[in-house]
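Quick review question:
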């Protein structure tokens, strides 16, 4: 897998929100604006108002305008930090490791679980009744839907499961990269592929939309809990501002977020963010090692 370091940053500016009721704090960057890049995950049209609300909460606490940008793919968000076109970003666990290696991204916070500690989710390899796939080894030689090469639950973890089952994910299947977890779900729902990845966040969103009937799917494999992807900051931010932004994100109260929005994100139990650091993702690094992926050479 190669991720082009020379790619132009492709970020869709979804929203700019702030109020004129307060003056920007003195050390806000870019004339008072913080750019917050988000990896593509579920339906961007649905995510836009959700992140508008989150950004509004951040802006009010930080004293800076917040501009939310959705990347066209995972690489675009990594590139945004590397090219100084974003101050902070939300990643999945694996895309964070890539951003840490390529752009010096520094994890600071994560959606918390009901206990206030860093939360988690899970990945699955899923098929549908009548696909001809009844066990994990049956996917050999068949088309398989992944979300994105830089996705944790949408590529890395399912690839690890396939390899543990004796299937080489680079040679023994026909990978189809859909671009997002939602698109992978749609590929399965419409029987475009006999098997693919489907994570718990995508399942939560599909259930909320009334589009997921468990009887229509067969889970062949489910992962152990995966740490939620972090909010990460650009390494070269002004130290005083970076420390302030990190504190804001580590103590952010999101209990006022609409419950339906949190259900859509698969974070129904989250009421806050929790502090996290780079070491929390060492387990993902172990999987990277098993798959013989050299992060430094993913250029």
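Suggested answer, residue by residue:
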């Amino acid at each position: 897998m190669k991720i082009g370091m020379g790619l132009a940053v492709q970020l869709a500016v979804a929203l700019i929100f702030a109020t004129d009721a307060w003056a920007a704090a003195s050390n806000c960057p870019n004339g008072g604006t913080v750019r917050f890049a988000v990896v593509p995950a579920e339906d961007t049209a649905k995510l836009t108002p959700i992140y508008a609300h989150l950004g509004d909460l951040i802006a009010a606490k930080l004293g800076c305008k917040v501009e939310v940008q959705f990347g066209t793919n995972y690489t675009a968000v990594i590139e945004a930090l590397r090219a100084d076109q974003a101050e902070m970003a939300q990643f999945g666990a694996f895309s964070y490791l890539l951003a840490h290696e390529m752009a010096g991204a520094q994890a600071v916070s994560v959606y918390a679980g009901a206990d206030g500690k860093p939360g988690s989710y899970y990945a699955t390899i899923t098929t549908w009744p009548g696909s001809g796939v009844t066990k994990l080894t049956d996917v050999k030689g068949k088309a398989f839907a992944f979300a994105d090469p830089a996705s944790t639950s949408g590529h890395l973890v399912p690839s690890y499961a396939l390899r543990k089952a004796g299937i080489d994910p680079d040679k023994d299947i026909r990978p189809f990269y859909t671009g997002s977890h939602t698109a992978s779900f749609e590929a399965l729902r419409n029987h475009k592929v006999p098997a693919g990845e489907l994570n718990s966040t995508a399942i939560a969103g599909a259930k909320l939309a009334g589009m997921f009937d468990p009887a229509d799917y067969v889970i062949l494999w489910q992962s152990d809990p995966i740490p939620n992807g972090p909010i990460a900051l650009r390494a070269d931010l002004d130290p005083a501002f970076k420390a302030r932004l990190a504190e804001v994100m580590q103590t952010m109260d999101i209990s006022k977020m609409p419950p339906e929005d949190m259900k859509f994100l698969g974070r129904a139990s989250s009421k806050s963010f929790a502090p996290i650091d780079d070491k929390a993702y060492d387990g993902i690094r172990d999987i990277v090692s098993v798959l013989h992926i050299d992060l430094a050479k993913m250029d």
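Why it works: The chain has two domains: 11-119+228-297, 123-223. The first strand starts at residue 11 and ends at 17.
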